[in-house]
């Protein structure tokens, strides 16, 4: 099932075209799948960030970020795990609901965590339905290539919109031998075939992670649906980053930031300075002062 290019207007969500140029405004209502398709058709770009709770969801939504991903990267960035593998569906659903109820305009996409879709198409459909019913997500993202085309097809037929994820797939890091760039040389054709199979199965978008820019451009050219890149060059329709990387919250001794990350702020230093100042005010007796007391 290909993405539609129109969507009936609702009283609270007036239908609107995506825009007419790189700086065009967002739709008047909720960003929908067909708005992303329109962006690719017009040669426009859109932005995607992760979010895991209400405040970042509200802030990024207000900033105009078109897509919010409640990623299984919550395992690393919320729950403190070393990889994305341990996070569970139940842990994810609470985060997805917080983001979905806080973002008024952005399209909210939920990651299917490791172990929640690999057994069968039936398992994948059941998990996807939970994310839409309990988490209030608008779509889900799942990792894997052409092997999962039938799974994607079953989910889309069940009414669960699917964003595909190819290239480096973090849930398969042990099978892939660690964090390694995918799609180099002759392997580029495999990625193109994976992307085409997933598009044919009904995926409304294909995300590529840690893929050479030339390969990502070839994948994008081979598809009619939009693509999203993370470490995949600038030819994709959208770009995504983990917000803690983008805003400079991750850091500290021994923490390495990926090459593809651009840091737009240094929140770690700001929060560290604020916490130190607060501690000193408490220790010195300056806080709370008369103006903070009843």
Tell me about this structure:
- Strand 4 (139-143), helix 6 (149-157) and strand 5 (162-167) form a beta-alpha-beta unit.
- With 294 residues, the chain is an alpha/beta fold.
- It has an eight-stranded parallel beta barrel, surrounded by seven helices.
- The protein contains eleven helices and eight strands.
- Helix 5 (121-133) crosses helix 6 (149-157), helix 6 runs parallel beside helix 8 and helix 8 runs parallel beside helix 9 (213-222).
- The protein is globular.
Descriptors:
single chain, 294 residues, alpha/beta, 11 helices, 37% helix, EC 2.1.2.11, magnesium
Oligomer: single chain
Mean pLDDT: 90
- Largest β-sheet summary: 8 strands, parallel, barrel
> Radius of gyration from the CA trace?
20 Å
Low-confidence stretches: 1-21
- The shape is globular
Question: In what order do the strands lie side by side in the largest sheet?
Answer: 1-2-3-4-5-6-7-8
Strand fraction band?
5-15%
β-strand number: 8
Helix-strand makeup class: alpha/beta
**Can you write the helix and strand succession as a string?**
HEHEHHEHEHEHHEHEEHH
EC number: 2.1.2.11
Pfam families: Pantoate_transf (PF02548)
Pathway: Cofactor biosynthesis; (R)-pantothenate biosynthesis; (R)-pantoate from 3-methyl-2-oxobutanoate: step 1/2
Protein name: 3-methyl-2-oxobutanoate hydroxymethyltransferase
């Amino acid at each position: 099932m290909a993405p539609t290019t129109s969507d009936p207007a609702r009283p609270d969500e007036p239908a609107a075209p995506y825009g007419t140029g790189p700086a065009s405004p967002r739709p008047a209502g909720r960003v929908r799948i067909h708005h992303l398709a329109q962006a690719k058709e017009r040669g426009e770009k859109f932005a995607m960030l992760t979010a895991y709770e209400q405040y970042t969801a509200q802030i990024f939504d207000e900033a105009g970020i078109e897509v919010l991903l409640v990623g299984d990267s919550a395992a690393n960035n919320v729950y403190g795990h070393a990889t994305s593998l341990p996070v569970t569906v139940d842990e994810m659903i609470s985060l997805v609901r917080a983001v979905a109820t806080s973002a008024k305009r952005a399209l909210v996409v939920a990651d299917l965590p490791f172990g929640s879709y690999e057994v069968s198409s039936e398992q994948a459909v059941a998990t996807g339905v939970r994310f839409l019913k309990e988490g209030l997500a608008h779509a889900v993202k799942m990792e894997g290539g052409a092997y999962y085309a039938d799974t994607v097809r079953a989910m889309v037929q069940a009414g669960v919109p699917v964003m595909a994820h190819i290239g480096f797939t973090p849930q398969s890091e042990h099978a892939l031998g660690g964090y390694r760039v995918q799609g180099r040389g002759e392997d580029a054709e495999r990625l193109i075939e994976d992307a085409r199979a997933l598009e044919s199965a009904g995926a409304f978008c294909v995300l590529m992670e840690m893929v050479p820019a030339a390969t990502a451009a070839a994948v994008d050219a081979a598809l009619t649906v939009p693509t999203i890149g993370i470490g995949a060059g600038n030819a994709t329709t959208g770009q995504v980053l983990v917000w803690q990387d983008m805003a400079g919250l991750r850091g500290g001794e021994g923490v390495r930031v990926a090459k593809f990350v651009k840091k737009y702020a240094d929140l770690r230093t700001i929060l560290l300075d604020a916490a130190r100042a607060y501690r000193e005010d408490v220790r010195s007796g300056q806080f709370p002062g008369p103006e903070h007391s009843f």
